[in-house]
Amino acid sequence: MKPKPGRALTVVMVLLTVTTGMIEAVSFLVLGPVFAAVQTGSLLLLGFAVAGTAGISITATAASLAGFAVGAVGGSRAESAIDGRGRRWFTAALVGEGLLLSASAFVVWRIGIERSGGPVDGRHLAAISMVACAMGVRNVTTLRVKEPGISTTVVTTALTGLLVVLHPLAADSRVGSGAGEESRRLSSILAMFSGALFGAWLLDRSVHPAVVLAVPAGLVLALGLALSALPRERTSVPG
Known about the structure:
By secondary structure, the chain is an all-alpha fold. It is 72% helix and 2% strand. It has one domain (2-226): Growth Hormone, Chain: A, CATH 1.20.1250.
C-alpha cells in the first residue's frame, strides 16, 4: 500500500529533507569530504579524486557509492516484498532507514570519529558506507512516493521549477505551477538549507558528530513508528 497523498505526507517529506541536510553536514564536513545522499556530488568528487585533486579520497567516494548501491538495491527489494503482501512499505522503509542511521551514529561514536581533518581511514570508510546505505534506502523510498516538488535528497529541480515559474522573465506554464506546487518547492529548498545550516552549526560548536547524526536518525525513526501506529486507512491507500 502506498502512502496517502495530502498535507501529512508533505510534512513528512519536508522533515526528511531537513534530515538530509544534517546527514550531509556530517558526511561532508567530518567523514569525507564525501556525500552520502547526493550521489551526483560523490560522482563529481570521484572524478576530481581520480584526476589527482588534493584532499579528496578515491576510497571514501567509492565507499559512499558502494554503500548507496547496496541500500538502493536492498531497499527496493524489501519495499517491493512488503508491498506485495499488501502492507505499508512506506512506514517500514522509514523505520528501516532510521535504524540504519542509528547504527551509523553508534559506529561513529564507538570508533572515535570526533572532528574533521586528517586522513580518511578504515573507520571513516565504515561509517561512510553505513550512512550512504541508509540514504540509498531513502532515495528508493522517495522515488516510490513521487511527492511533487519534494525529492528529500536534492533540490535542484525544485529550485529550477520555482525560478522558472515565479520569475517574470522566465515564466513557463509547462513546468507546472500553482500555490501547492510552489509551496512544496520552496519548502524543500528551505528544509535542505536549514538542515545543512543546523548540522554545520552543531559541528562548529564541537557537538560530537555521532550526536548530530543521531538527531536525524531519531527523527526518521520517530516518523516511521508514529505512522505505523496510526490506522492504515489514515496513512495509506491501495496501489
